[in-house]
Specification:
The chain has ten helices and ten strands. Strands 1-5-4-8-9-10 form a six-stranded mixed beta sheet, sandwiched between helices. Strand 6 and strand 7 form a beta hairpin. By secondary structure, it is of the alpha/beta class. The two termini are 43 Å apart. Helix 1 crosses helix 9, helix 1 runs parallel beside helix 10 and helix 3 crosses helix 7.
Length: 359
């Protein structure tokens, strides 16, 4: 059924734009809710905590020995992430249920550093979090060795594209390797979060607690892996020396280039690295105009899905007799919209906050 003969072209155009916005608000909220779960450390009392866990499997080339491993169905979480955020057991024991607060602080710092919010169509972000139990790796050198195995595992999947036609959970197609890749920075630099500092965050005058109040009290370790062949230039911590904190680690780092810095400083450093690499290799930027207009690009797919959603909502409303000749925009909006921007301001539909009462 076509609603065009029943409504003026202006009304139809306005409704389609409202429905497009309606769809994007819903998708954005669902994505951020899923991200909250992904950034929540494992907890047997909370099955919705879905942080990826470092595991191990038998080494096929050396019987009786194990090698680091991650769930093959979750390899896609590494795609389009600038680095890996190894969340150690020492930090997990203290963080409680405040994983989303750390995520919120990182999200805000990352958005500030890039001058925009992450493009969720591409699942791009600062890092993929990985929970590390001491039985698998309890030192920075140990985590670096595990990281090398994990990157090799993910890279093999990308190169072979052996899951291109597979289905992952929720029946979503495996990410298209043309647009979802393993970043060179991800192989060259890791983040270790080994201590959570509890902060009694108070409400501000706006009535909210602020992620930044917690984030500014946290620190991370940055460590170079030595695998920088894919970068335009070597990584240097020289610009961070005046912000460095005591390393506070007892293990022997050997020749590893490592530094502890405030969390927000580290997020900005990685963002600047990403911008440097995108400037050096513009043809590799999957959000660039030359590639984002391709029919199969996630940007285009999302637009088509939003359009299909709008048409389905209008057809359904007409089938229910809620759209008749000369029906007003307000009447149709009442019938088809989940988010009533005609009544409430867009601020009322602010994105899902990762943790209620926080911004």
């Amino acid at each position: 059924m076509d609603v065009s003969p029943l409504l003026s072209p202006e009304v139809v155009a306005e409704l389609r734009e409202d429905l497009r916005r309606d769809w994007f608000i819903t998708e954005n909220d669902e994505y951020r809710l899923e991200l909250e779960h992904i950034w929540s450390p494992p907890n047997p009392l909370h099955p919705n905590h879905k942080m990826l866990e470092l595991d191990s499997i038998e080494n096929p080339q050396k019987r009786g020995h194990k090698i680091p491993y991650i769930d093959t169905w979750k390899e896609y979480l590494f795609y389009n992430k600038a680095t890996v955020f190894y969340w150690t057991q020492s930090a997990t024991n203290m963080v409680g249920r405040n994983g989303p607060v750390i995520l919120g602080g990182i999200w805000n710092a990352w958005s500030d550093a890039l001058g925009r919010e992450p493009q969720i169509q591409l699942d791009e972000f600062f890092a993929v979090p990985v929970s590390v139990k001491e039985e698998y790796a309890k030192t920075v050198p140990g985590i670096l060795r595990a990281h090398e195995h994990i990157c090799a595992q993910v890279r093999k999947t990308v190169e072979e594209n052996n899951r291109a036609n597979a289905l992952i959970k929720l029946c979503k197609p495996w990410p298209d390797p043309r647009y979802f890749k393993l970043h060179s920075i991800c192989e060259a630099l890791i983040v270790v979060f080994d201590e959570y500092k509890s902060v009694a965050a108070e409400k501000h005058a706006d009535g909210f607690r602020h992620y930044g109040d917690v984030a500014q009290n946290q620190s991370i370790i940055l460590a170079r892996t030595g695998h920088e062949n894919g970068l335009s230039a070597p990584i240097s911590f020289e610009s961070l020396k005046d912000k460095a904190l005591p390393l506070a680690r007892s293990e022997d780092m050997g020749t590893i280039d490592v530094i502890r810095i405030p969390l927000q400083v580290g997020v900005h450093f990685v963002a600047n690295l990403l911008l440097r690499e995108e400037a050096a290799f513009p043809e590799s930027v999957v959000a660039a105009p030359h590639i984002s207009r391709e029919a199969d690009h996630p940007f285009m797919k999302w637009e088509r899905e939003a359009q299909d959603y709008g048409e389905e909502r209008l057809v359904h409303a007409q089938a229910q007799g809620k759209i008749e000749p000369f029906t007003t925009v307000a009447a149709v909006e009442k019938a088809v919209l989940h988010h009533r921007v005609d009544i409430y301001s867009l601020e009322n539909y602010a994105p899902y906050p990762f943790k209620l009462g926080w911004i």
